[in-house]
Design brief:
Blueprint (H helix, E strand, L loop, with lengths): L1 H31 L39 E2 L5 E6 L11 E10 L5 E11 L5 H7 L7 E6 L19 E11 L1 H21 L5
Antiparallel strand pairs: 1-2, 2-5, 3-4, 3-6, 5-6
C-alpha cells in the first residue's frame, strides 16, 4: 500500500513539475518576445465610425493661449515678439506694405480676420498695427499684442467686441514708397492704354 502511494505521489509530482515548466517557458517567451500565444495576441484597432456631426460654418479657428502673448512692450503699450528675424530697412508711416497676416482676439483666440499678400498704406490701419509695421524688416514675422487703446477702443467693429485687446501675426513680404507706388500705377495705366489702342474698332 505504501509503495502504491509513493508511486502515485511521484507521478503527481512529475505531472505538476512538467506543467510548471510549460507555464514558465510560456512566461519566458512572453517576456523575451520569442512567442505570442493566441490568447495574448494584440487585436487590430477598430476603424473609426463615420461622424454624423456637421462642421459649423464659417470655420473660425481658435488660437491657443500661448500664441496670444508677447514678450516685449513699447512705451505706447504695444506688445511684440519676433518670430522670424530679418535684417534690413523698415517701412515708414507713408509707405505701402505687402503682408500676410492673421488677427484674433486676445481674450478668446477667435480669429476675426486674415489675409494673404494684402497691400495697404502703413499709416492707414489701426494705430497698433501701424506702429508694429514700422518695427518690421522685409521677410520678418512678428506677433503684435495690441491693447484696445491702440485698436478700436470702445467701439465695436464687426466681430470685434468693444474694448477688445487684439493680437496679430504679421509677415512683411515687401514695402514700397509713395513714389514707387505712383510709378507702378502710372506704368499700369500706360499699359492699359496701350492695350485699348490695340483693340480694333467695331465695323
Amino acid at each position: 500500500m505504501a509503495v502504491q502511494w509513493l508511486t502515485a505521489y511521484a507521478a503527481a509530482m512529475t505531472h505538476t513539475l512538467r506543467a510548471g515548466l510549460r507555464i514558465a517557458s510560456a512566461l519566458a517567451a512572453l517576456v523575451l518576445g520569442t512567442a505570442a500565444p493566441a490568447a495574448f495576441a494584440a487585436s487590430p484597432p477598430k476603424p473609426p465610425a463615420p461622424s454624423l456631426q456637421a462642421i459649423p460654418l464659417p470655420l473660425n479657428p481658435i488660437i491657443p493661449a500661448a500664441q496670444r502673448l508677447c514678450t516685449q512692450a513699447a512705451a505706447s503699450g504695444l506688445g511684440s515678439v519676433v518670430l522670424t528675424p530679418a535684417e534690413g530697412a523698415k517701412p515708414g508711416a507713408d509707405d505701402y506694405a505687402l503682408v500676410n497676416y492673421i488677427g484674433y482676439l486676445a481674450a478668446t483666440g477667435m480669429v476675426f480676420d486674415q489675409g494673404m499678400r494684402s497691400a495697404f498704406p502703413v499709416g492707414g490701419v489701426i494705430p497698433g498695427f501701424s506702429e508694429g509695421l514700422q518695427m518690421m524688416t522685409k521677410g520678418s514675422i512678428w506677433r503684435f499684442c495690441v491693447p484696445a487703446s491702440l485698436g478700436y477702443g470702445d467701439e465695436e467693429s464687426g466681430p470685434i467686441p468693444a474694448g477688445s485687446d487684439l493680437v496679430f501675426q504679421v509677415e512683411l513680404l515687401d514695402y514700397k514708397s509713395p513714389a514707387e507706388v505712383d510709378a507702378m500705377r502710372a506704368a499700369a495705366a500706360a499699359a492699359n492704354g496701350a492695350q485699348e489702342q490695340d483693340v480694333p474698332a467695331p465695323r
